[in-house]
Amino acid sequence: MKNKINILAVVAARGGSKGIPKKNIKKLNKVPLIQYILKSLNKVKMIDRIIVSTEDKKIKKTVADLYFKTVEVHNRPKSLSGDKVPLTSVVKFVANEVYKKENYKPHIVLQIAPTCPFIKPETIIKMIKIL
Fold first, then answer.
1. How many C-alpha atoms does 109 have within 13 Å on its Cβ side?
2. How confident is the model at residue 21 (pLDDT cuts 50, 70, 90)?
3. What pTM did the predictor assign?
4. Which H or E run contains 53?
């Protein structure tokens, strides 16, 4: 029997975009942009946790309304919400927080952007298998 591999997907969805404010919840074909990637991630059964990291109340509400049973919303501190903060810093922060608070240690952490709505579940599965 194989040991279970913990796979965490972190979706960093900042509300303060300068180019297109609130772009992560703007509608694309009448659907909030973030919904596309969350739908794909939910189809990948290998992933045991999906966390959206945001400081924005509207993004939190959108995610909670759509995916309250399958996606966790993580409150991103203001220090990690600026335009110059690398996404890897946000993802690392989230992974460390869930480890400290819940002793959950992912073997694989996926950094997925809500601005990539056309990533298919099959592509995510391929990424995991490569890792």
1. 21
2. confident
3. 0.91
4. strand 49-54
